[in-house]
Amino acid sequence: MFNLLKSGGILMIPILICGLLATYIIIERLVYFASIQKKDRELRKNLEEVLAGGDFSSAEAFCIQAGTPLSQVVRKALGCRKLTEDDMREIVQCEIDAVAPQFDHWLTLLSTIANISTLLGLFGTVTGNIKAFGVLGSGGTMGNPAVLASSISEALMTTAAGLFVAIPSLIFSNALSRKADKCVSEMEGTVTKLILRLTGRVM
Question: pTM for the full model?
Answer without folding.
Answer: 0.86
